[in-house]
Write a structure and sequence with these properties.
alpha/beta, single chain, TIM Barrel, two-stranded parallel sheet, globular
């Protein structure tokens, strides 16, 4: 399908791209902005911000929606956490978002690398707010506890889609397992000193009713921040786009989410997990 006008965005500025890429290359770091072909990369790099992707750039899973390379990853780089902390400081980031590839090959799923990265960021900039977008750690509780103990400000884990589509969109993942992870974050932080967050892609073939049911499940699990964005097909080998969801529908779903009880719903065709995350968190905590 031809992309509608609301999904046509300007090409990124080469100077902005080069400036951030030079810093990332210097630290031998990766950004999910590039690896996942985020449409907002130009805007974010122009603001000197990016989402760090740790544990390499090769994922052990092969989800049907994701542009990140699938294969056999190398061993984690022990210097990576320090380089993320240093680079975030060099960029002057007051809000740092860190995600990763899924590492089913590691006993802890990479949780120790997340914890070390959180500590490194806070050591370099004690006033920085840290958001981590984590994988499901294979449903294990111990790795999640390790991340929680490192005390990030936000723990995010995306459900990505509705339960009916999991087998075709997220093979290797389980809806209830991801929901339980978010619930465990809330149970471990009843005072909400760590906020839980999740996101969905729309346009994969879900119905509006299914999206609302997922919202209710997330709220029951204690999740209070939700992002909704349009799925964009990375290549012909990935899951097809079934629908380009109109911006008005995103607005309507945001209204429903707010009425149901979310503290923050960020919805729109170009919204991604970390898009305007700093502004959203600031608005929510004011």
């Amino acid at each position: 399908m031809k992309r509608p006008s609301w999904l046509v965005i300007p090409a990124p500025n080469a100077n902005d791209m080069d400036r951030i890429q030079e810093l990332l290359d210097k630290g031998q770091l990766h950004s999910v902005c590039e690896s996942a072909q985020c449409p907002n990369i130009g805007e974010c790099f122009a603001k000197k911000t990016c989402t760090f992707m740790i544990l390499g750039d090769i994922c052990t899973r092969n989800c049907a929606f994701c542009a990140v390379t699938h294969g056999r990853p190398s061993c984690p780089d022990p210097n990576e956490p320090n380089m993320v902390g240093l680079t975030a400081s060099q960029l002057g980031l007051s809000y740092v978002v860190v995600t990763s590839v899924t590492r089913d090959d590691l006993p802890d799923g990479g949780a120790s690398q997340f914890a070390a990265t959180i500590h490194a960021i806070k050591r370099e900039n004690p006033n920085a707010t840290v958001e981590v977008l984590i994988p499901d750690f294979g449903g294990k509780d111990a790795p999640l506890k390790q991340v929680i103990s490192a005390a990030p400000d936000v723990i995010s884990h995306n459900l990505e889609t509705v339960p009916r589509l999991y087998s075709s969109v997220r093979p290797g993942a389980a809806y209830e397992q991801s929901l339980r992870l978010l619930k465990n974050v809330s149970l471990a932080c009843p005072d909400q000193h760590i906020m839980s967050k999740s996101g969905l892609m729309l346009g994969l073939g879900e119905t509006r009713e299914e999206v609302v049911e997922v919202m209710k499940d997330l709220l029951q699990a204690g999740c209070r921040i939700l992002t909704l964005g349009q799925y964009l097909r990375p290549s012909q080998q990935h899951h097809p786009v079934i629908e380009y969801v109109h911006p008005d529908t995103f607005d309507q779903l945001a209204d429903i989410g707010n009425e149901l009880g979310f503290k923050q719903v960020i919805a729109g065709p170009l919204v991604r997990s970390s898009y305007h995350a700093a502004e959203s968190f600031t608005a929510m905590t004011m």
